[in-house]
Amino acid sequence: MTELPDTIDATQAMLAEVGYVCPRPLATVVFLSLRLGRPLFLEGEAGVGKTEIAKALAQALGRRLIRLQCYEGLDASSAVYEWNFPAQMVAIRTAEAVEGTDRDALTEELFSERFLTRRPLLEAMSPQDGGAPVLLIDELDRTDEPFEAFLLEALSDFQVTIPELGTVKAAKPPIVILTSNRTREVHDALKRRCLYHWVDYPDFEREMQVLRARCPEAQEALSRQVVAFVQRLRTEDLFKKPGVAESIDWAKCLVALDAVTLSPEVIADTLGALLKYQDDIAALQGSETKRLLDEARDTLEPA
């Protein structure tokens, strides 16, 4: 287990060691979240690196990463715990086959740790080897308001209640990262319990740093063309603009094809790694691809 960083610069350096290029504003809020023990709420477009910051923190600190992937209809029981009903039924049938079974003792046994299935929130508040884990609550905007209300108590007191067993309180609160793609607004009451940061698309230089770290096999000239083209593409009216994750995937595809430079033909063949909606892909057919490529190259001429 690595000690928590004691400065913003140390936070940046720690994350850089595991391949996460962290701009200073983000490093500042990460440092404050770690220092103050406050949850960190990250909003931004999909693919800009919100989820990756939690993975990078867990790796850099040597902590366990526990991920709660949010979805529509997620409720407290699914996020906290469930009882292993098939195992309980087997225990009941086994007990029924034995004469003189103590029913009170059986009931107590059925609702004990033996039959408890821990879900992410309960697991994150349980003792862990190597220190408090990193709890990632991913894409919170996919859930609904009742679940947000439940999280208010869980994140305020770092405790959850299991009716059959009582209240479980974290001896050491987890490092909590919440993310949202802002498909809807998250309630202010939940945001107030967190430190907040908007994660934007990176500028050219930072995206180049990310590409060097995540796709070092790509030649420098190709990487510059990839970043310039993607940055130009983000200015277009697209249903879903490509994020940093798509830039990395695209660069890796180009390397796998032994491409050394971008051309309209290569771009057309690999657009599926960059764009995920057919309408966006169709909008880049023919002369549009060449126009964007020419404009991207123009931005590179001074360099």
Structure description:
- With 303 residues, the protein is α/β, with parallel strands linked by helices.
- It has helices at 8-17, 24-36, 50-61, 76-80, 85-96, 103-110, 120-124, 145-157, 188-191, 204-214, 220-233, 244-256, 264-270, 278-283, 287-300, and strands at 40-43, 65-69, 81-83, 116-118, 134-138, 159-162, 166-169, 175-180, 195-198.
- It is elongated and about 85 Å long.
- The mean pLDDT is 91.
N- to C-terminal distance: 42 Å
C-alpha Rg (nearest Å): 24 Å
Oligomeric nature of the chains = single chain
The secondary-structure class comes to: alpha/beta
Our count of helices gives 15
**Overall form:** elongated
Fraction of helical residues: 40-55%
What pattern of helices and strands is seen along the backbone?
A: HHEHEHEHHEHEHEEEHEHHHHHH
Largest sheet: 5 strands, parallel
Summarize model confidence as the mean pLDDT: 91
Strand content: 5-15%
